[in-house]
Design goal:
Number of domains: 3
Radius of gyration: 26 Å
Oligomer: single chain
Helix content: 25-40%
Number of helices: 10
Strand content: 15-25%
Structural class: alpha+beta
């Protein structure tokens, strides 16, 4: 019975998938009843090295995880009353223990921070939380009449997934407009879909489940009048647009908008402009992700503050694995096996939404440090 009610108390940070097996990591912890005492311990013991840190409350709950390029400077900033964010003050007020883990580089700290947030889900962390993330995929699926929808999870019902993109009203608006443009349904799943070739016991025209058929924004697969081939032709056109193979719908939407403006139908032109803006925004975001998938696949060597070089195996903007830089025959054999498994295994780059935040870390890192690309190695080298 006691196993059913775990108290979730913190034990340790745990192992990392972003460090080689048996890689030495130094972890320290300080405890105190008052913030002033914690500050004294931090000032005395915290190193001026990159790493991650955690704050624990008096119930031994991990309430916050962060990363730092310089642990001493970052941790001391929490105790400066002037200039610190209000959230930092609330965290320190509840903290009774601080622990930190020294890591070889700032890049390793970024990956480790995200890993720890997913594992422990501290209540003061927002970015990286599985239940709070702001990233989603544009999905095409759900038979028998596929349509576009947003989802954070990729299931067997998904025919194709695109992204990730930032979740929010703009993405939702773009998906709704694309369903309208390609005349795909967007009704609830319980709505029955009937195609003429199904051999219905009671053939005939059924009433539409919504008004979209009447206003010309849906083929009406719920009425029994839409041919299966016509509907799937539209889904293929939609898929080609999202994959970047055919962007003519954007030009057609823009032409409609300009025609309405020239005809002085300004309200209609404004509505068409909003539609075009949302779809163009989505197309631009997907193009950026496709570029990252295409270009951010390489071996990224990072030399840490201790002089150790790690090879991060980045594939499709995801940090898939990490190995130590080969220095002899044994380490060269280990690295070669890992490289073949990552780059020749044919793994689906969008196998789970858990990798969305990891992709954003890689994309933002190389956008912020473009010269780091010059150090990267090709997997075939």
């Amino acid at each position: 019975m006691t196993q059913l009610f775990q108290d979730g108390r913190f034990v340790d940070l745990g192992s990392s998938a972003y460090l080689p097996h048996d890689f030495p990591v130094r972890t320290s912890r300080v405890d105190a009843a008052k913030p002033s005492e914690l500050r004294a311990h931090v000032r005395m013991l915290a190193p001026s090295q990159p790493g991650v840190y955690g704050m624990l409350d008096d119930d031994e709950q991990l309430i916050y995880v962060g990363k730092a390029k310089n642990l001493r400077v970052r941790l001391q900033s929490y105790f400066r009353r002037k200039g610190r964010p209000a959230k930092a003050g609330r965290i320190v007020a509840r903290a009774r223990s601080i622990l930190w883990e020294v890591l070889p580089s700032e890049f390793a700290s970024l990956l480790r921070e995200l890993e720890l947030i997913r594992r422990w889900r501290p209540r003061f962390n927002v970015q990286g939380q599985p239940l709070r993330r702001r990233l989603t995929f544009v999905c095409l699926g759900r038979a028998p009449a596929p349509y576009l929808y947003l989802s954070r999870q990729l299931t067997s019902q998904v025919q194709a997934a695109f992204g990730p993109v930032t979740a929010g009203s703009y993405a939702l608006h773009a998906v709704r407009r694309l369903n309208d443009w390609f005349k795909l349904r967007d009704c609830p799943q319980p709505q029955e879909m009937i195609f003429p070739d199904q051999g219905d016991l009671f053939p005939g025209v059924r009433p539409a489940g919504c008004l979209r058929l009447e206003i010309g924004t849906c083929l009406g697969p719920c009425t029994g009048t839409c041919e299966r081939g016509d509907y799937h032709l539209q889904t293929r056109r939609c898929r080609a647009f999202l994959a970047g193979h055919d962007l003519t719908p954007l030009d057609e939407m823009h032409a409609e908008m300009e025609a309405a403006a020239q005809a002085q139908e300004f309200e209609r032109a404004a509505a068409l402009r909003d539609r075009w803006s949302a779809v163009a925004w989505l197309a631009e975001r997907l193009q950026r992700v496709r570029k990252a998938h295409r270009e951010l696949s390489f071996i990224y060597p990072v030399t840490g503050v201790d002089g150790t070089t790690l090879w991060y195996l980045i594939h499709g903007a995801r940090t898939v694995s990490v190995v130590e830089s080969p220095r002899d025959a044994d380490t060269r054999r280990i690295a070669d096996a890992q490289i073949k498994a990552v780059y020749r295994g044919g793994a689906d780059l969008l196998d789970t939404y858990e990798h969305a935040d990891s992709m954003m870390i890689v994309m933002q890192w190389f956008r912020k440090h473009p010269k780091e690309r010059e150090k990267c190695l090709s997997p075939t080298q």
